[in-house]
């Protein structure tokens, strides 16, 4: 199983930060059930607001590395990408096998 985690800090200059976090969450969670090999996808919005915390986190599980690659190029993922890129200030990710 492949686990794919992404954390974003949102850009203050992009406008309504809480609203953008919620929209990002909804866009990504809508990918559930649409992409072959995607077993689980959940999105969390940080409530701690610590100096070192990110604003939004994506946790997802895939059947294989090939399924993850398919997710990254899938048209449904591509539809969400422009909004995500427009509101993020920073992105960190980790992909690993479990």
Structural features, described:
With 98 residues, the chain is of the alpha+beta class. The protein has a single domain (2-97), classed as Alpha-Beta Plaits, CATH 3.30.70. Helices cover 36% and strands 35% of the residues. The protein has helices at residues 17-29, 65-73, 75-87, and strands at 2-10, 38-45, 56-62, 88-97. Strands 2-3-1-4 form a 4-stranded antiparallel sheet. Helix 1 runs antiparallel to helix 3. The radius of gyration is 13 Å and the shape is globular. The protein starts with a strand and ends with a strand.
Instruction: Please report which band the strand proportion falls in: under 5%, 5-15%, 15-25%, 25-35%, 35-45% or over 45%.
Output: 25-35%
Kindly report the oligomeric state of this protein.
single chain
Count of beta strands: 4
- Radius of gyration, in angstroms, nearest whole number: 13 Å
What number of domains? 1
Protein structure class: alpha+beta
Low-confidence runs: none
Amino- and carboxy-terminal Cα gap: 6 Å
For the record, the CATH architecture stands as 2-Layer Sandwich
From N to C, what is the helix and strand string?
Answer: EHEEHHE
Largest sheet: 4 strands, antiparallel
Shape descriptor reads globular
CATH topology: Alpha-Beta Plaits
Mean of residue pLDDT values: 96
Which strand order do you get reading across the main beta sheet?
2-3-1-4
User: Helix tally?
Assistant: 3
Q: What's the CATH class label?
A: Alpha Beta
Q: What is the helix content?
A: 25-40%
């Amino acid at each position: 199983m492949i686990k794919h985690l992404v954390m974003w800090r949102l850009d203050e200059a992009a406008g309504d930060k809480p609203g953008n976090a919620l929209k990002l969450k909804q866009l990504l969670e809508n990918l559930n059930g649409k992409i072959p090999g995607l077993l689980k996808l959940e999105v969390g919005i940080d409530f701690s607001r610590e100096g070192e915390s990110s604003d939004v986190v994506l946790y997802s599980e895939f059947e294989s590395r090939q399924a993850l690659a398919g997710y990254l190029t899938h048209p449904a993922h591509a539809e969400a990408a422009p909004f995500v890129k427009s509101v993020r200030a920073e992105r960190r990710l980790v992909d690993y096998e479990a």
